[in-house]
């Protein structure tokens, strides 16, 4: 299997490069054939650091020469859709870093291309879906979800000095993970903003409230400038509450924690403090699981482009400062 990577920036250096390097160990048939970046010097550094065979400065040159079996794409948000479309039109299996486009229109177009001709295997890299603590929480709450005894989800994303003009491309993680844990589509959403013009154009504190199609109420708080890096989710159910505090990358790396309370008695189910970051943040499973599925010939991935459409739609709503949103039936 020949693997190529497009985009040698921070996310690839932190996640995709180390995960590929580890996955290749013990798999002599896996070739890290080439990496590519518009900054050719950066691509050469990445090639040397992670053991790729060649480096390119132009995507088409690499794809034409290498003819890879799979491509990882981790480029800027504004270029993501056009680069991904090129890969999918060539019918090459794709792992695409989030978000899969800046707009719902872009994401839908990609999903359409991927579905043509029997479909192209692909996965969208929302890493929280693959984090061990997220999956453990979803597993542990499944019984209550199945019997409609989860009543509310609260998600908090807090950051330090994130005065980006567009925080929506980070906020999409919270939007997507809440939906993933609810095991349901969003039904209706209201958006609340406190603009912070003294911190820069577009800076704002934001909250989403509403309900999922299965009746669960939610609140997603987005606090980009509140002085601490914290991310946590709380599920409230019948006689049980679950609280997940996600790990912090650091430095230093700080482990996460999953606990629950039942009838007034607290329990700790799982801690991620002893795991290394690649595993704790889901990067290893996200990438290696995709490549393993390709190697074994398994079918469609449930974490595909269509599964991200609501998340992209709500991300776009945040960017455009919409105040309300109602689910379109076709997105469910």
UniProtKB/TrEMBL annotation:
What is the protein name stated in its UniProt record?
Gfo/Idh/MocA family oxidoreductase
Q: Which InterPro entries match?
A: Gfo/Idh/MocA-like_OxRdtase_N, Gfo/Idh/MocA_oxidoreduct, NAD(P)-bd_dom_sf
Its domain of life reads: Bacteria
Q: Name one GO molecular function term.
A: nucleotide binding
What the entry lists under Pfam families is as follows: GFO_IDH_MocA
**Gene3D superfamilies xref list:** Dihydrodipicolinate Reductase, domain 2, NAD(P)-binding Rossmann-like Domain
Q: Can you give the residue ranges of the Gfo/Idh/MocA-like oxidoreductase N-terminal domain?
A: 2-118
């Amino acid at each position: 299997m020949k693997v190529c990577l497009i985009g040698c920036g921070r996310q690839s250096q932190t996640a995709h490069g180390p995960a590929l390097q580890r996955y290749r160990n013990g798999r002599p048939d896996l070739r890290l054939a080439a990496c590519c970046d518009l900054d050719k010097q950066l691509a050469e550094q990445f090639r040397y650091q992670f053991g790729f065979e060649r480096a390119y400065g132009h995507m088409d040159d690499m794809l034409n020469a290498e003819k890879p079996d799979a491509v990882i794409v981790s480029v800027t948000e504004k270029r993501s859709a056009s680069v991904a479309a090129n890969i999918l039109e060539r019918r090459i299996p794709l792992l695409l870093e989030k978000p899969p486009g800046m707009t719902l229109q872009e994401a839908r177009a990609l999903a359409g291309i991927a579905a043509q001709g029997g479909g192209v295997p692909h996965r969208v890299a929302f890493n929280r879906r693959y984090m061990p603590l997220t999956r453990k929480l979803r597993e542990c709450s499944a019984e209550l979800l199945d019997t409609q005894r989860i009543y509310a989800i609260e998600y908090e994303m807090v950051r330090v000095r994130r005065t980006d003009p567009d925080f929506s491309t980070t906020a999409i993680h919270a939007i997507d993970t809440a939906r993933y844990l609810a095991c349901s589509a969003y039904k209706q959403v209201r958006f609340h903003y406190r603009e912070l013009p003294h911190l820069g154009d577009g800076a704002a504190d934001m909250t989403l409230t509403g309900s999922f199609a299965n009746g669960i109420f939610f609140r997603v708080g987005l606090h980009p400038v509140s002085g601490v890096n914290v991310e946590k989710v709380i599920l409230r159910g019948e006689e049980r509450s679950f609280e997940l505090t996600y790990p912090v990358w650091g430095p230093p790396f700080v482990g996460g924690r999953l606990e629950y309370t039942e009838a007034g008695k607290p329990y700790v189910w799982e801690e991620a403090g002893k795991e290394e970051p690649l595993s704790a943040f889901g990067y290893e499973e996200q990438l290696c699981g995709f490549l393993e599925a390709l190697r074994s010939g398994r079918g469609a991935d449930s974490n595909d482009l269509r599964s991200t459409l609501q998340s992209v739609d709500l991300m776009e709503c945040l960017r455009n400062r919409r105040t309300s949103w109602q689910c379109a039936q076709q997105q469910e």
